[in-house]
Amino acid sequence: MKELWIENGKKEELSTLVNQYCDVIVEGGKASFLATKQTRNVFSLSTGLEKTDVKGKVLRSCISDKETENLTVKAAELGASYLIISCANWRVIPLENIIAKIKGKSKLIAEVVSAEEAKVALETLELGTDGVLLKTSDSEELLKTVAIVKPEALKLEMATAKIVATKPISNGSRVCVDTCDMMTQGEGMLVGSQSAGLFLVEAEVNENPYVASRPFRVNAGSVSMYTLGSLQTTRYLSEFKAGDEVILVNREGKTRKANVGRIKIEIRPLILVEAQVNNKLIKTILQNAETIRVVTPKASKPVTELKVGDEVIVHLAAKGGRHFGVSVPDETVIEK
Question: In degrees rounded to 5, what are phi and psi of residue 285?
Answer without folding.
Answer: -125, 120
